[in-house]
TrEMBL record:
Record has Magnesium as a keyword: yes
Superkingdom classification of source: Eukaryota
Protein name as annotated: Mur ligase central domain-containing protein
Similarity field: Belongs to the folylpolyglutamate synthase family.
């Protein structure tokens, strides 16, 4: 471990050089980054949705996801769907709840179904850049187009407004948008929808799906997010999540779970006569084998081997699957999705091993260990280093990111560019990542947020958390203040060759460019890795810049 000695005892001129180069870039790019506005074509729909209660912005009330007096009223959602002609009954649904891994499992499973040629709708939340990402359709699983969404909204608007009136204005943004998604899936003749629960409780709007419409339910993991909304304990969360189990319909559980939690899920399934398939079954002999590259982008090589005999006989052997989604947790999600696919085969769907492999390999989510192509890096004005975007913003997700980085790039030099919302655990986040690999520098920054509740922590406050985290861990850091000045090259990168981690703040693009410069100066056999993380907003800002 590096020595305790926070500080910058180096000459003024070196310091000035370093500062100038960071600061010089700050000015040119001040306004280039802010999260995108929705497509103008969606103005009317967004205006309507914004007139409704939005719990994603206001926070979810205590107990809202539990099956109790405090719970959201699912009756409201049922009446809305009834008025709309129950579109959710015109296709089969795989319903996914869980604390972590819902979105990735949904991505794997919908990708598998598409690879077999089924017409698939996928409904997830939240989104990174546009609300359209929440509804994906079609052969490639693209977000619904603004045109199609707007058109569909207009055809349903009258009936939705009638429902809002009947409920005295008590329909939420999430409820109405979920109804629009289901209605759109029906309209597009979707055969099967993969639906991620929002809050994930018994009273989640998506839980309007009834037994006969459900193909299977999946519970990925049970952890302590939304603790208050789901009743205050891990057990109450498990009970709330198991509210998606339906009579006689199979339940796939991911895990691994602590025994008391698995017991709750299994007891619920058994009370509903639902067969249970566990991805953490002893018959799971899947393993991470190593890494390879496909068109310059790293992938993880996995064997997915299942031989499950309880409740159903399920088996598959896929060797050398090249997952684009990285990390041990993604192997776990891939195994869960594979269990679900095999379970669907028991119900008369026919997903071949080939389609399962293709689906797993092509599944991809923006902003989860997303590696930019060299063209994309060029658009940011950098080349040489690998740029990775990850929306991690809790200490748990930072730990998962840290594990993935250690595993995927064990020897690479790293630079982090971090922005975080001000209500997050900045110190906890920094603690998880400060010991990652061969860390050269951490840049703190801020991005503008359009239309979200959270505000960003100031870059200087954020930097303090990293100074404090490094102090706790006995790491040596160089703490630089950014002064305003003209553009200069980063000659001072040499000083980073010392054992210290450079900490500095600046605008997003300036930080990315300065970070890549440092990595290129220090390039060893492997290219360095620049990781942009801390919030979905910073990921969104980079993607927005690339797509503008
Ligand atoms: C399946 O087994 C692999 C290898 O032991 C493990 O990494 C993975 O986490 C397991 N999956 C689940 C869902 O338990
Ligand atoms: C860092 O530590 C100092 C001294 O303990 C404390 O005053 C300060 O509030 C901390 N700052 C952050 C952002 O954690």
């Amino acid at each position: 471990m590096k020595n305790l000695s926070i500080l910058c005892r180096f000459t003024r001129s070196i310091q000035r050089n370093m500062l100038c180069s960071v600061a010089g870039l700050v000015h040119n790019t001040r306004h280039a980054f802010s999260t995108l506005r929705e497509d103008p074509e969606l103005d009317e729909m967004m205006e309507f949705l914004d007139s409704l209660k939005n719990f994603e912005k206001s926070g979810v009330p205590k107990g809202a996801g539990t099956d109790s007096e405090d719970g959201f009223d699912l009756g409201r959602m049922r009446r809305l769907m009834g008025l709309m002609g129950n579109p959710q009954s015109r296709f089969k649904t795989v319903h996914i709840a869980g604390t972590k891994g819902k979105g990735s499992t949904a991505a794997f499973l919908s990708s598998i179904l598409r690879a077999e040629g089924y017409s698939v709708g996928c409904y997830t939340s939240p989104h990174i850049q546009t609300i359209r990402e929440r509804i994906t359709l079609g052969k490639w699983g693209e977000p619904v187009s603004a045109k199609a969404l707007n058109h569909h909204f207009n055809t349903r608007r009258e009936v939705i407004e009638r429902a809002v009136k009947l409920e005295n204005g008590c329909l939420s943004h999430f409820e109405v948008f979920t109804a629009i998604a289901f209605s759109l899936f029906a309209e597009e003749n979707t055969e099967i929808a993969v639906v991620e629960a929002g809050l994930g409780g018994a009273r989640d709007a998506t839980n309007v799906i009834s037994g006969p419409d459900l193909a299977i339910s999946i519970i990925t993991t049970v952890g302590e997010e939304h603790l208050d909304a789901l009743g205050g304990s891990l057990e109450s969360i498990a009970v709330a999540k198991s509210g998606i189990v339906k009579n006689g319909r199979p339940l796939v559980i991911g895990g691994p779970f602590v025994p008391s939690i698995e017991y709750i899920l299994r007891r619920k399934a058994s009370s509903m006569s639902s067969p249970v398939v566990s991805a953490s079954d002893l018959g799971n002999r899947s393993a991470l084998k190593g890494f390879c590259e496909v068109t310059g982008i790293p992938r993880q090589l996995c064997d997915i081997v299942l031989q499950i005999e309880k409740d159903y006989d399920l088996s598959i052997e896929l060797l050398g699957v090249k997952l684009r989604m990285l990390g041990a947790h993604q192997l776990q999600n891939a195994v869960t999705a594979t269990c679900a696919a095999l379970c669907l085969n028991k119900q008369g769907w026919s997903l071949s091993s080939g389609a399962i492999r293709t689906g797993l390999e092509s599944a991809f989510l923006q902003g989860r260990t997303q590696i930019l192509s060299s063209e994309e890096a060029n658009l940011l004005g950098v080349s040489g280093a690998t740029i990775l975007l990850d929306g991690a913003h809790t200490k748990e997700s930072a730990r998962a990111l840290e594990n993935t980085l250690q595993m995927t790039f064990p020897k690479a030099k790293m630079v982090l560019v971090v922005a975080m919302a001000n209500d997050k655990d900045h110190l906890g986040f920094a603690r998880e990542l400060i010991s990652v690999g061969d860390l050269d520098a951490v840049f703190s920054t801020e991005v503008d947020i359009a239309g979200a509740k959270s505000r960003m922590a100031s870059a200087s406050l954020l930097k303090c958390s990293w100074v404090n985290a490094s102090r706790e861990m006995n790491m040596k850091v160089l703490d630089l203040k950014v002064a305003e000045s003209e553009d200069q090259s980063l000659q001072a990168a040499g000083i980073v060759k010392s054992q210290s981690i450079l900490l500095a703040e600046g605008s997003l693009l300036a930080c990315i460019r300065a970070g890549v410069k440092i990595l290129n100066e220090r390039a060893g056999e492997q290219p360095g890795i620049l990781v942009v993380t801390g919030s979905l907003h910073i990921v969104s800002a980079v993607l927005g810049y690339l797509h503008s």
